[in-house]
Design a protein that fits this description.
By secondary structure, this protein is of the alpha/beta class. The strands form two sheets. Strands 1-4-3-2-5-6 form a six-stranded parallel β-sheet, sandwiched between helices. Helices cover 38% and strands 19% of the residues. Bound molecules: adenosine monophosphate.
């Protein structure tokens, strides 16, 4: 696997692949790789002749007082894991390479960024879209793979790709979970053992609501109440949102339908976790 840290080298590599008619599949990450990331890379392997990942903890998607400094990093292990799954290039730029002196251009996707994580993290998706568009311009992917774990992010990126005529096809891969159901996340590393134990409550709560939906409950308030009641029993868990939204525009629904998104965000101690299921 080749490791590239400069913007111009990345562009040259992608240009060379494209001249050779290779299909480029791309997986952007913030590193501290786990099985969820690796599943995206395996999916990318199936879709493309050349697989690129990026490892970049993007400062512009973190708000003031968020966990940019605390975000876990494990460069050597990441490189080893990516090599093992057959990634061709890991693009690992420094912050000053992506945001040089004088940087002042940002991408804003409007409506679909307003609810859920967008409400509690103002500016977050502006940072995400800006870095994803920059990475797309450098890597020139035919296909880019994102995780359902960050459902809103996948929708926002899809919207941006459509609106800005980005030629990459956006593929969304399923959420990979720990044996107790907790969605894999680099941030799980920040949990104490007790918090880690309690964190399984997020997916349990979502599953409770999903089961009720399967049994015929369609009232959104009732479904949310079921999930919320479970979460409120967990000591030290601070619920940020628990919402049922339609999947295409993230509009709030009062009657649940197949495919709707039930999404949750909660803090355990200082660590913010998100999860979601489709009904
Ligand atoms: P991150 O490094 O957290 O920014 O995530 C990079 C990509 O991996 C994003 O597209 C995430 O949605 C995806 N991802 C993160 N966790 C998981 C998971 N547990 N299962 C599937 N994809 C994931």
């Amino acid at each position: 696997m080749r490791i590239i840290d400069s913007v111009s080298e990345m562009q040259q590599q992608s240009d060379a692949w494209r001249r050779d008619g290779k299909r480029i599949a791309f997986v952007p990450t913030m590193g501290y790789l786990h099985a969820g990331h690796l599943a995206l890379m395996q999916s990318a392997r199936k879709h493309g002749d050349a697989v690129v990942i990026s490892i970049f903890v993007n400062p512009t998607q973190f708000g003031p007082g968020e966990d940019f400094e605390r975000y876990p990093r494990s460069f050597e292990k990441d490189i080893q894991l990516a090599t093992e799954v057959g990634v061709d290039v890991a693009f690992v730029p420094q912050v000053r390479e992506m945001y040089p002196e004088g940087f002042q251009s940002y991408v804003e996707v409007t409506k679909v960024t307003l609810p859920l994580c967008g409400r509690s993290r103002p500016g977050h998706f502006r940072g995400v879209c800006t870095v994803v568009l920059k990475l797309f311009n450098l890597v020139q992917p035919d296909i880019a793979v994102f995780g359902q774990k960050d459902a809103q992010q996948s929708l926002v990126v899809r919207r941006m790709a459509r609106d800005l005529n980005i030629p990459a096809r956006i593929v969304v891969a399923p959420t990979i979970r720990e044996p107790d159901g907790l969605a894999m996340s680099s941030r799980n590393e920040c949990l104490s053992p007790l918090e880690r134990y309690r964190a399984a409550a997020l997916c349990q709560a979502l599953e409770l609501a999903r089961k009720a939906f399967r049994k015929g409950e369609r009232n959104a308030a009732a479904l949310k109440k079921l999930a919320r009641r479970h979460l409120l029993k967990i000591p030290g868990l601070r619920l940020e949102y628990l919402e049922l939204r339609n999947i295409s525009h993230l509009r709030s629904v009062s009657q649940a339908s197949h495919g709707d998104l039930l999404a949750v965000a909660a803090f355990l101690g200082k660590t913010r976790l998100i999860d979601n299921v489709r009904l």
